[in-house]
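Page 42, continued from yesterday. The earlier attempt failed because a stray header line got pasted into the input along with the sequence. Redoing it now with the clean sequence only.
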Amino acid sequence: MTCRRCRGCMARDHFLDLQESGGEWWMEGWRCINCGYVFDPVAEQNRRLHEAATATPLVTVQQPSELPAVSEQEWTIDLAA
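This time it went through. Structure tokens are written below.
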């Protein structure tokens, strides 16, 4: 397995839950030998769900033919002296 952050080598590792979150105390996962990045399948799934929920919809750009007609009078600006 290749690290997503640095493209280094990932190795299986065992993790201990010291915060006693109510789940399993021991978890097996992947840790990068180079940078220390930890791949956790549950955290990865939550990250993807969060990204999908916060993604902004695509903005459509109007073509010049679809823009409303504006007269030249509306573009003039009166400056106060």
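Notes: Residues 41-54 form the longest helix (14 residues).
Reminder to self: strip header lines before submitting.
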